[in-house]
Amino acid sequence: MTRIPLSIAAIGTTIALLPGAALAQTTDPDRYGWGPHMMGWGGGWYGMIFGPIFMILVLALVIAVAVLLVRWLGGSSLTATPHHPPARTPLDILKERFARGEIDKEEFEERRRILGE
Question: Which 8-state DSSP code applies to residue 44?
Fold first, then answer.
């Protein structure tokens, strides 16, 4: 890699900045659109009200897109039916207790006969 001497780099930087320095020292206030009516707004307060309005509109749009994207990816909870396990009858509970060994066959038959009445 070749090194550029410091004096050449300083001269190049100075030459690059000269046009900017010359433009910054102009005395014509209308050259850049500055002055009593900055950037062509006419100096009225009504021009400044559009900024907050557009900011609110853009923020509302971003929030709406985010909500729609989340609903589309995850599915809306309003349209989906909640998952409820089927209701267990007393006979189902009795069969489960018998299958787990909590009650013997005689007790199972007796309680099933009582539930059947």
Answer: -
